[in-house]
Amino acid sequence: MEDIKLSALMIVFNEEKNIEGALKSLEFADEIIVLDSFSTDKTIEIIRKKFPQVKIFQNKFEDFTKQRNLCLTYANHDWILFLDADERIPRALRDEIKKEIKNPDAKDAYFFKRKFFFMKKPVNFSGTRNDKNIRLFKKEVGHYDDTKRVHEGLSNIQSSGTLHNYLLHFSFDTYEAYYRKILHYANLKAKDLHEKHVQYGFFKQIGKSAFNFFKMYILKLGILDGKKGFILSYFSALTSFKTFEYLKEQYS
């Protein structure tokens, strides 16, 4: 049987709190590649000291799509596994990945279901029950859609499947960290909307923000997550509100 190998990839910036756990969960891969956006904390120091086998590259961050596509060019193997620094691959999922890439009838790409944690506590509703992202795919189909700076996705997948075991997503451990991410993502999303000639509108801003809160808190049962559900619903609304604020600035 052909020797099928796996390249594990990460794009990072200032992930000293997460990098060790993430890289440990990737040690089963045949190579690990990290593309760093010139971190100013101890991210690179930790990698070099504790994970000498990891290949490190650096590139100034412009947007997530460009970073991911650049990172792909460094991979040497047939299969790609992308992991975010706040995600972990448990043993059951690791074994499923290793089995699936050797399947002669394997799909082009695989979605991973994610178990979401906020402030180190599990979130059971708030839209997370159906949360899944493509994390594993064949390198030959690997190219992220250049029209999206954030919430990026692969552009030429012909067939896909979903793995059974869950990826663990340890989101933010402070409100401040979540708020910083909201501002970052909203700014990138606003640039996408501006390039698509989407116009700013005050009532559109208020309406979409209110609907996002209602959707997560009521329709996606965030109310059943108690305080966590309310906070996550609020942040969902805030993301939409800030996106339109940045969009307004694009036209000023």
UniProtKB/TrEMBL annotation:
Glycosyltransferase 2-like domain sequence ranges: 7-112
Gene3D superfamilies in UniProt: Spore Coat Polysaccharide Biosynthesis Protein SpsA, Chain A (3.90.550.10)
InterPro entries linked to this entry: Glyco_trans_2-like, Nucleotide-diphossugar_trans
Gene Ontology MF term list: transferase activity
Entry keyword set: Transferase
PANTHER family listed in its UniProt record: GLYCOSYLTRANSFERASE, POLY-BETA-1,6-N-ACETYL-D-GLUCOSAMINE SYNTHASE
Record-stated family: Belongs to the glycosyltransferase 2 family. WaaE/KdtX subfamily.
Protein name: Glycosyl transferase
Organism: Chryseobacterium soli
